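Lecture notes, continued. The same structure-token format from the folding unit now serves as the input rather than the output. Read the line below as a description of shape only.
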């Protein structure tokens, strides 16, 4: 996964691109590069490191020129080093190219090009595309970059979003192409952009054209055209978004994650305003429902299956990458895919596998690939999420799920409930200090609190690097209990609901083996058993069905504060990226 951006217009291309790359960094942040052309002279600056550091070190914004491309990388082919950073060029330093995706047949292409004398500077699959275009230019009568670009695309297997230009092109123009990796054109006044995602362009425009698989776009100073792979012009819909550039900024918080946790009190209302009528009526027509998603979105999906199950419906949540191994859906199955980005390759593959089934997509991103596959789309309206760890988009996914099941009226107090739970931060910080040196942390819960335990555990491990597991309380005795010894923290999600009596037994079971108990509860007996406790609202002041929203907020804050205490950047945890467009 990587982020790409291109600009052509009247501004300094390197400044627009550098700014845009900061918004794309969630897609990958091990190296970064910019290439601009000015009076037919190419200037490429790139290195390993994060956008802020590399752009300052190499003084990106001093590069002259009004056309260029940029890239932020998450390594797939080749290690993290300057040579492997994008953009890449051909032998003559004429074809310039940045890529997001994976070229599956790159070894064969590379061997063929090497036999024709091409010399490669990097280990990446991307560089071979620049050489392939160079080779095809040699072979074309006109030496046309445009013709060679189209020809080369036909040889590529795998996934790509490409941004490219040729220094010696007959006119100043940028080329883009997409296959299974996102790409959106941003249409400004006398300027055009294209990028992997909308926030990178929000400062300059609110008008966008999402490209479809197989599209090639050519941007010049006077406009853009979109073509199919066989060179025929196609028309693609323009849309406008009401996101503001500020929504994609940190707004005074040290990290996006903290801002996004705090923003939940606002965005939950946006989410609840989303129209779920069509999705609800589809759900009511089916007896067999499969929910597919990954990571955090899977936990929202799991919650969906518990809630539908409570209503006597048959709904099963599947991890998207496993789905094709487990079941064979048929036309009587309704498939619901949940994906914040709408671009997660595992989810898209699972959806494609569910051929012939009606499909609902629940997503945050207008124009994302999932919206082109599903029959019915529900937007969670959470605004752009920049932190790698999903927070507000999880709560907003839950908001949509709850609205589908219970209707909006019962959810009106959600925003104030979230606000109330944000006030637990002082206590959460105290607990974070007590946990920061732990090597293992366990979460337990029962019933529909289990997806919250899974989600809290995922959040903690991904941004603190502390090993963490979550279990339904009843499972402790079937194995994990052997890991509990003096001082091992167990976080018990213990609201006063139908799960409490049995979970209390599990808490005692762990405590008698020396566990340090941290509880989220509104029950006095559980508080007494606990070393630390985060108070949930009194039973009299909360509708128990809303407990999941109350519990996830302090648990997100806990992961965040442990991460910061350990000196980790919670927005950019190691080895992870936000939008996973590879399987
Ligand atoms: C964890 C996280 C990931 C994503 C997962 C699916 O904080 O963000 O686990 O939830 O990669 O991503 P989407 O929802 O975009 O399909």
């Amino acid at each position: 996964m990587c982020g790409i951006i291109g600009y052509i217009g009247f501004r300094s291309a390197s400044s627009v691109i550098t700014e845009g790359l900061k918004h794309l960094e969630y897609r990958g942040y091990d190296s970064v590069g910019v290439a601009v052309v000015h009076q037919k002279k190419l200037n490429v600056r790139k290195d390993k490191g994060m956008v802020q550091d590399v752009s300052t070190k190499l003084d990106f914004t001093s590069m002259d020129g009004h056309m260029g491309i940029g890239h932020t990388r998450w390594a797939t082919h080749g290690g993290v080093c300057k040579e492997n950073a994008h953009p890449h060029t051909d032998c003559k330093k004429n074809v310039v190219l940045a890529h997001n995706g994976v070229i599956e047949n790159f070894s064969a292409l590379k061997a063929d090009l090497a036999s024709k004398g091409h010399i490669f500077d990097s280990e990446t699959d991307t560089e071979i595309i620049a050489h392939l275009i160079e080779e095809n230019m040699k072979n074309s009568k006109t030496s046309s970059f445009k013709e060679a670009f189209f020809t080369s695309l036909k040889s590529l297997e795998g996934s790509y979003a490409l941004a490219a230009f040729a220094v010696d092109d007959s006119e100043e123009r940028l080329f883009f192409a997409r296959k299974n990796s996102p790409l959106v054109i941003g249409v400004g006044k006398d300027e055009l952009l294209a990028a992997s995602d909308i926030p990178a362009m929000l400062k300059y425009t609110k008008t966008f054209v999402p490209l479809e698989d197989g599209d090639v776009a050519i941007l010049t100073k006077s406009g853009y055209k979109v073509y199919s792979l066989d060179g025929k012009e196609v028309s693609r819909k323009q849309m406008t978004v009401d996101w503001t550039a500020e929504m994609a900024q940190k707004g005074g918080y040290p990290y996006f994650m903290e801002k996004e946790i705090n923003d939940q009190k606002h965005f939950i209302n946006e989410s609840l305003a989303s129209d779920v009528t069509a999705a609800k009526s589809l759900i009511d027509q089916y007896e067999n429902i499969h929910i597919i998603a990954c990571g955090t979105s899977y936990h929202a999906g799991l919650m969906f299956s518990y809630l539908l199950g409570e209503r006597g419906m048959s709904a099963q949540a599947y991890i998207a990458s496993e789905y094709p191994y487990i079941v064979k859906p048929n036309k009587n199955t309704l498939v619901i895919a949940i994906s914040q980005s709408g671009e997660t390759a595992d989810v898209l593959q699972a959806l494609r596998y569910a051929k012939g089934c009606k499909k609902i997509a629940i997503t945050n991103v207008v124009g994302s690939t999932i919206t082109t596959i599903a029959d019915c789309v529900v937007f969670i309206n959470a605004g752009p999420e920049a932190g790698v760890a999903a927070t507000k988009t999880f709560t907003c996914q839950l908001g949509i799920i709850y609205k589908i099941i219970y209707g909006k009226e019962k959810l009106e107090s959600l925003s104030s409930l979230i606000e109330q739970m944000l006030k637990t931060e002082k206590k959460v910080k105290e607990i974070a200090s007590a946990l920061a040196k732990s090597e293992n942390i366990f979460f337990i819960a029962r019933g529909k609190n289990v997806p919250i335990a899974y989600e809290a555990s995922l959040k903690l491990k991904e941004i603190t690097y502390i090993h963490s597991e979550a279990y339904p309380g009843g499972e402790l005795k079937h194995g994990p209990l052997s890991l509990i010894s003096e001082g091992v923290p167990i976080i018990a999600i213990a609201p006063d609901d139908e799960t409490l009596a049995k979970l209390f037994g599990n808490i005692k079971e762990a405590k008698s083996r020396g566990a340090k108990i941290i509880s989220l509860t509104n029950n006095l007996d559980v508080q007494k058993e606990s070393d630390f406790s985060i108070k949930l609202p009194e039973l009299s002041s909360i509708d128990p069905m809303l407990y999941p929203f109350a519990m996830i907020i302090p648990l997100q804050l806990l992961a965040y504060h442990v991460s910061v205490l350990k000196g980790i950047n919670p927005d950019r945890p190691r080895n992870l990226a936000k939008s996973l467009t590879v399987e």
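Point for the exam: The radius of gyration is 25 Å.
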